[in-house]
Amino acid sequence: MNWIKIVIFTALAVVVFIPVQSLSAQSSSGTVAVITKLENDGIKADLAADSSWAEKVLADDWMGCDSDGKWYTKADILKMIADTKNNKFNTEKLTDLKVRVYGNTAVATYKDTYDALVEGQHCVRSVLGTDVWVKIGSDWKQVSSQGTTTK
Fold first, then answer.
1. Which domain holds residue 106?
2. Which CATH number characterizes residue 68's domain?
3. How much is the pTM?
4. What is the number of structural domains in the chain?
5. Among residues 9, 119, 137, 141, which one has the fewest Cβ atoms lying within 10 Å of its Cβ?
């Protein structure tokens, strides 16, 4: 009689856990698509000098470190976007984007190649970037960003 219970328990476990694994995979791929779109929309916003992306997507306590080792807050970024005389992207391209999902957190890594005026300095660079995203309520917010110049 014990082997009958084992067979029934095994059958129930298969019925319960297979849909859970399938749901998890769908959820992860959906998140990858959302973060990928947000990253690409950020590039479009940079090129258009549009602050609405940063206002909506960056967490209020967002911190970012650029490839020169300088820290920025969300307020700093918004101020820079508004100052198009000293801050303007001429070209920008995101490549090698990879998104990894860990529950309500996602990490995006990529290569960002740009020609821009940044705080009055002309910069032509390729940067390896890492962005950390957290799902807050129903929205994905970027909470941290870091860039390292490639060699």
1. 2-149
2. 3.10.450.50
3. 0.80
4. 1
5. 137
